[in-house]
Write a structure and sequence with these properties.
heterodimer, A: 296 residues, mainly alpha, MetI-like fold, 2 domains, 11 helices, globular, B: 301 residues, two-stranded antiparallel ribbon, 13 helices, MetI-like (chain B), MetI-like_sf (chain B), Spermidine/putrescine ABC transporter permease (chain B)
């Protein structure tokens, strides 16, 4: 934390840590105009989020003025049956979405990396479509599909009633996984695969014992991406969700429409913390893997 | 070297069928149905006949809707421009920072990007609304200024009028910049990071100032990165639904809000389908333009 970047926040101490020598010609971060811009940008990005989190502990209902510390809003949020249900729904959907997206994404990546086949460019383009199509277009497509073409049976027991949303989430998440895994595959030495086969390993065995271990960091990064994409999605879920299949963002949205209370702050804070922890774990795992790669 | 699929038909089938089938069944098929509906008409409360009519598209290019398309393009364009103006110096500073600082700054830029879009928009509402923090700070400054003026014997200022920062076009642009800034910074950063620094040093040695170097050396070299940053900011901004819905007023509706209304409230699916395909075509045009720019700059380079 003692690095230059952190002192760039205005007023935090840029003056008391004046560098002794003049900044080098390309050390832009040590020039004050850029420090001001970077600092102001970080303030712009973080101030709203930090105030949201801080004021989730505020006693006052009209949450502008700080009146005192309380955890009441968290208690309220945790006692809010439908909010809790929505949160569990979101996690369940994200869980299944992650598993299936990783499998499909990995297969797609291996297919595009390994084989030459007619229509490959078309398939490649098709795989990129869910990434570029505007969310709203995909949302209405899912609405129409599940309303008219393949109605999801009503009144299914939990978690089967979440099937439609999960399918929609997988459709937009697995191409992201495929992209990440394919980037990882680019560094694979194909001779290793041939060597394994020469030594008598079957196709399946080679895939499982040689290719999958190499893909692992990509798979982890892809899984993390799929999980957060699913947990965060609002628009597509908004169109796919039925009245009894509410997810956390959709629930927060309806609470917001109704009234802005610190309870929403509390619920939001919980989601922010969950996402940040997951991301930190994922990054840590990736760093470990990279360190291992370097050693090997 | 890639293997031809004929050499390992069984393996190819096992690998290729699941993702391709999923893509067709749960992505392309729904889009195809919507496309079909865009050429159809409502023949009953819940029946839509695909009659091959272009009436929906004709309606979509009427001045009322054309204006909304135009407005969405302007708002998305303005958002992209602001992101570029803010993001470029930030990316430059990150790219030239020490490795450790670089990693921290990248993480700091990425972190809000992993936070839920809805929550970020909600956080912004709390900051911008009439009794929000921005207005609270302004009021405090106003009252202090007023007090100081009274002390030095001047006429004190009148009552503080809170600024209306929410429910207008400005709020939508602020909100879109807020959520899309990381989309711009990351591609810019990776372009600037890969750049050959000796060219910049040469320019500075030969007497060009920093601004001149940035403008005539760095910007052309980073052009592909700038183009891709512009694209991946512009596309989601153009199709944004949540930000104009929560931060905008009645006159700051963007195209996604109109599409939503056709599907959820007006129940005019064929027209909504036509609008959503027009939005998709606009997206594809933007991608094609970017590809052209990229190819041109590669040929030059």
């Amino acid at each position: 934390m003692a690095d230059q970047g952190f002192t760039s926040v205005p007023g935090v101490g840029a003056s008391q840590r004046e560098p002794k020598e003049k900044p080098g010609p390309l050390e832009y971060l040590r020039r004050w105009p850029l420090r001001v811009i970077v600092g102001a940008t970080l303030v712009f990005l973080y101030l709203p989020l930090i105030t949201l989190m801080v004021f989730s502990f505020n006693t006052s209902r009209r949450n502008v003025v700080w009146q005192g510390f309380t955890t009441d809003w968290y208690v309220k949020a945790f006692n809010n049956e439908s909010l809790l249900q929505a949160f569990v729904n979101s996690l369940t959907i994200a869980f299944f979405c992650t598993i299936i997206s990783v499998v499909l994404g990995a297969l797609a990546a291996v297919m595009l990396w390994r084989f030459r086949f007619p229509g490959k460019t078309v398939i490649e383009g098709g795989m990129a479509l869910p990434i570029v199509v505007p969310e709203i277009c995909m949302g209405v497509a899912m609405l129409v599909f599940f309303a008219r073409v393949m109605p999801w049976p009503m009144g299914m027991p939990w978690p089967l009633n979440l099937g439609a949303i999960t399918i929609a989430h997988i459709s937009f998440a697995f191409p992201f996984v495929a992209t990440v895994v394919r980037a990882r595959l680019a560094s694979f030495n194909r001779e290793l695969e041939e060597a394994a086969k020469d030594l008598g390993a079957s196709e399946w065995r080679t895939f499982w014992d040689v290719l999958v271990p190499h893909m692992q960091p990509g798979l982890i990064a892809g899984a993390l991406l799929a999980f957060t994409l699913s947990l965060d999605d609002f628009v597509i879920t908004f169109f796919t969700a039925g009245p009894d299949t509410i997810t956390f963002p959709v629930k927060v949205y309806s609470m917001l429409r109704f009234s802005v209370t610190p309870e929403v702050n509390a619920a939001s804070t919980i989601l922010i913390v969950v996402t940040v922890i997951l991301t930190a774990v994922g990054l840590q795992m990736q760093n470990n893997n990279e360190a291992k790669d370097k050693k090997a | 070297m890639e293997q031809t699929w004929r050499q390992a038909k069984a393996a190819f089938a096992a690998i290729a069928v699941p993702p391709i089938a999923w893509l067709f069944l749960f992505f392309l098929a729904p889009l195809a149905v919507v496309w079909g509906y865009s050429l159809g008409e409502n023949t009953g409360p819940v029946t839509i006949d695909v009659t091959g009519t272009f009436a929906n598209y004709m309606r979509a290019v009427e001045p009322l809707y054309l204006e909304i398309f135009g407005k969405s393009l302007v708002i998305a364009g303005l958002t992209t421009l602001l992101c570029l103006i803010i993001g470029f110096p930030v990316a430059l500073a990150i790219a030239f920072a020490s490795p450790k600082t670089k990693a921290w700054l990248l993480l700091l830029i990425m972190l809000p990007f992993w936070t839920n879009l809805l929550i970020r928009t909600f956080a912004l509402i709390a900051v911008l609304r009439e009794n929000g923090y921005v207005n609270a700070i302004l009021e405090w400054m106003w009252n202090n200024a007023s007090g100081v003026m009274a002390i030095v014997g001047l006429q004190p200022l009148g009552d503080f009028e809170p600024l209306t920062l929410l429910y207008n076009n400005t709020a939508v642009v602020i909100g879109l910049v807020y959520v899309h800034l990381p989309f711009m910074v990351l591609p810019l950063y990776s372009a600037l990071d890969r750049m050959d620094r000796s060219l910049m040093e040469a320019s500075l040695d030969l007497g060009a100032g920093h601004l001149r170097t940035i403008w005539s050396v760095v910007v052309p070299l980073a052009a592909p990165g700038i183009a891709s940053g512009v694209l991946i900011t512009f596309i989601p901004a153009l199709g944004a639904y949540l930000t104009p819905d929560l931060l905008g007023g009645t006159d700051s509706q963007m195209i996604a809000n109109v599409i939503e209304r056709q599907f959820k409230r007006a129940n005019d699916w064929p027209f909504g389908a036509a609008l959503s395909f027009l939005l998709m075509y606009l997206t594809f045009i933007a991608i094609a333009v970017q590809a052209l720019v990229q190819r041109k700059s590669e040929r030059r380079g």
